[in-house]
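Researcher: Here's the sequence for the chain we discussed earlier.
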Amino acid sequence: MSWANPLSFLPEPSPLLIVLSLLLVISIPLILHLIIYNTTSDTLPSILLVGPSGSGKTSLATLLERGRAAFTHTSQVPLIVEVSLPVKTTVASSRFRSPNDPTWEVTKKLLIQDTPGHGKLRHYAVDSINKPQNLQGIIFMVDAADLSADTSEGPRQTAEYLHDVLLQLQKQVTGSKSSKARKEMPVLIAANKLDLFTALPAPTVKSKLESEITKVRKSRSEGLMDSGIGAKDLDLGTEGDWLGDIGNGDFKFSQLEEVNIQVKVLGGNVTGADGSEVKQWWDWIGGVL
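Model: Thanks. This is the structure I predict for it:
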């Protein structure tokens, strides 16, 4: 053995060992890639579309599906459409994927489930909330022009429906017997018809709905009191029918963050003289996928 070369005592590597080593070097990263990034399932992620009649839900669903809004009428049954995110819209869960990844296009597909807004047909929305199928978020459509009319029933009825949707989500957390907390549920309040002169801007829509929900909470608690339920028997705890923080203070959407409900209000318009403007809504959808 020559001391000039300290590695000279090692045996010569066989061709088979070299081939196996190369296969391991190549295959391990590929296997890890499939495990980490290949997260798609047979069920596409879904977004639930709810809101009062006339707010533009079905028009939005057709716009997202076809790239243009279609003439619609009052929905009587749910509508499910498959849509693909625009090229420039980034999917939050795929921000580290390469565009050459074969699963790249799949991650940009989703289902939009439109539900009827009529009061007697809102059980479809409740069922979808209680029995979600890969539900990633909820879009609550509102008519921003209708909310500006204080003399109409629109603001109150819209707030009542939104109150009930948020309360149902809250109960899924507070009423759950499981110690495992539900994942965050993003809720977008899509202030539609901002192209109209009478429409309220998104920040005003937010404050308006918070104010109206405050009134809904108060009127419903007073209704229970008037029905003969005493103050000591009235359950306004986290497991009761009280949305947000307990007490007589004003309601704020930020109160729901404690139960993993993230509410955002963004404006846009499905139709209009200058076309549609829904980029902010697309970006929100991409951010929750």
